[in-house]
Amino acid sequence: MRRALRQRAERRQLMTAEADVLGELRRLRARLPQLTGALAASADGLVLARDTPGDGAEGVAALTAAALGVALRLTEATGQGGFRELLIRGEDGYVATYAAGGSAVLTLLADPRINVGRLHLEARRSSARIAELVDGALDKPQPEKEVRPPWPTPKPPSRKPRP
Q1: Which end of the chain, N or C, is more open, meaning fewer C-beta atoms within 10 Å of its C-beta?
Q2: CA dihedral over 25, 26, 27, 30, signed as positive or negative
Q3: Which helix (H) or strand (E) holds 81?
Q4: How far apart are CA 103 and CA 134, in angstroms?
Q5: Sign of dihedral through CA atoms 77, 80, 86, 91?
Q6: pLDDT band at 122, cuts 50/70/90?
Q7: Which pLDDT band, with edges at 50, 70 and 90, does 135 fall under?
Q8: What is the DSSP-derived secondary structure letter of residue 40?
């Protein structure tokens, strides 16, 4: 229960960075016109921001979380250190996922004609910026919720001045 409450609080904090992260995704797509989609997601598959056509962002984020789990185990098992990036080449293009701090990932969809070196260069810069935004949102102290008793609070008696 405590873990679930902590996860909900983290999700609320992550969503505060949504506009800034979306701006970074749009700037990245402007620098790389061969990108067909970009999304930032939490490591557990929650979409933080997306700049993609269609409605499949939630499914891509969930699949990214699953692939991330496998990639983490693979890098650990082979002694290659922590996860940094994953590149998948399909017949019709690329899917690239980059670590964005400890709490988020950046997933990009690209045309098959993209320059992969440039993709890595720009995506690594953007993932570092997204990591700053997300980690900054998680580090911000959240305002304490005012605790009120479940019963009505009596008002103090009013005193009228004597004439």
Answers
A1: C
A2: positive
A3: none
A4: 7
A5: negative
A6: very high
A7: confident
A8: E
- pTM for the model stands at 0.76
The token pair at 33 is 């016109």
For residues 14 and 138, the answer to whether their CB atoms sit within 8 Å is: yes
The residue type found at 78 is T
pLDDT digits (tens, 9 = 90+) for 61-74: 999 999 988 999 99
- Do residues 127 and 43 make contact, with C-beta atoms less than 8 angstroms apart? no
- DSSP, residue by residue, 118-149: HHHHHHHHHHHHHHHHHHHHHHSPPPPPPP--
pLDDT digits (tens, 9 = 90+) for 100-115: 988 899 999 999 999 9
Which one has a higher pLDDT value, 72 or 158? 72
State how far the Cα of 148 lies from the Cα of 161, in Å rounded to an integer. 32
Tokens standing for 159? 């005193």
Residue type, 68: L
Residues in the chain: 163
At residue 32, φ and ψ (nearest 5 deg) are: -125, 85
